[in-house]
Amino acid sequence: MNAPIRVVVCEDQALVRAGYVTIFDAQPDMEVVGEAADGEAGVALVERVRPDVVVMDIHMPALDGIEATRRLAGPDVVNPSKVLVVTTFNLDEYVYEALRAGASGFMLKDAPPAELIAGVRTVAAGEALLAPAVTRQLIGRYAFRLRPVEEEAPAGSGPLSALTNREREVLTLIADGLSNAEIAGKLVISHETVKTYVSRILTKLDLRDRVQAVVLAYRTGLVSPR
């Protein structure tokens, strides 16, 4: 039997936090190894117990969830944690900033328990939890607004220069919100071949997951918001 997914819950509302703990501990493949009521305590706890997944609220005292996520999973973190942001605030800038800070996924608190459980399992497996609608409408708009000047670099230079034409094509489809299965169907290749391409893209660009790949695709100008 595989070891359970070790979860830390960072949530300032006691009732909500207790609900998460109850839900996760009731799963045969999960174990809550700690909980925190503010961002600073959450960061310290995660660094101490090193869970598989951190369930993170955005609005918390002492340190908000976005900054806590950045400290745990940001680009400068040597051993980044997997953070699933769960919040009541369905606002564009919160979604984008959370993902830009290094979160592996974003969910709303009103999601059914089954979806929350599935979200933790998805993030624990190393996959990004990112709905196509979020990809196209939110990340696209905010990455376009904030992306740097090097977006104008010629196709043969810049951070995407290491990719082959096919890999750039796959990255474009990822940024469009397509799943591996949908990419396979569109390019008429096998699902395993798509997984290989995605793995190569992440390795070449030194990215942790599909979320980071999507943000980079928009920030470099490979794709633009519709």
Characterize the structure shown.
The chain has ten helices and five strands; from the N terminus they run E-H-E-H-E-H-E-H-E-H-H-H-H-H-H. It is globular, with a radius of gyration of 18 Å. The chain has helices spanning 14-25, 39-49, 65-73, 92-100, 113-124, 132-146, 165-175, 180-187, 191-204, 210-219, and strands at residues 5-10, 30-36, 53-56, 83-87, 105-108. Helix 2 (39-49) runs parallel beside helix 3 and helix 8 (180-187) packs across helix 9. Strand 3 (53-56), helix 3 (65-73) and strand 4 (83-87) form a beta-alpha-beta unit. The chain is of the alpha/beta class. It has a five-stranded parallel β-sheet, sandwiched between helices. The protein has two domains: 5-129, Response regulator (Rossmann fold), CATH 3.40.50; 134-219, 3-Layer(aba) Sandwich (Rossmann fold), CATH 3.40.50. Helices cover 49% and strands 12% of the residues.
